[in-house]
Amino acid sequence: MYPAEQVDHQIQCDRESCSHCDSKAIELLDIPPEIFQQVELPEIRAIVTEYLLQKYRCRLCGKQSVADLPKGIPDSAFGPKLMGLFATLTGVFHLAKRETIQLIKDLYDVDIGLGSAPNIEERVANALDPVYEKIHQIIIESKLCKHFDETGWRDSGKRHDGWLASSKIAAFFAINPHRNKEAFKVLTRGKDPSDFAAVTDRYA
After folding, report:
1. Does the predicted model carry a pTM greater than 0.90?
2. Which alpha helices (H) appear in the chain, and where do they start and end?
């Protein structure tokens, strides 16, 4: 049962007659009512915001300029939350791009072209760069034992390697076109693996 502070609506249900004999000679009992709770999804519609970017002309140099978007607003037809949802569906839940586009259309009535999908994913990936680098730093610089591994990875039809650095608290993945000492140094941020406890898969 959800607590009272989480209940959004409360509807009192009454009877006009007896459910057994259909008599109207019924009286309300002085006891708490039976509680039935039902959880439902809200009616949702995407929010469309129109930004009017005023145009200006400099009286000194004669050149024109346009007002900037408010801080934190990407120069994209899609807002941060919508792009974040799209990247989560494709990247975390592994939905195909077409399935993701159809799901967002069905849920929010938002049209996303198939060509916009990689642009959205790239924007989200770039926005997550600081977090990505912080995770990398935490793993390499922590005193916990680290695990390193690599496996073949196809990228745009070419052979690459997917590298992994992990510890008890986090995991870091990177794609590198090489499987050599230089690629491993990128993974360890230049640190010598002999300087810390590490587990590798027959790394020479």
Report:
1. no
2. 80-91, 97-108, 117-127, 129-141, 181-187
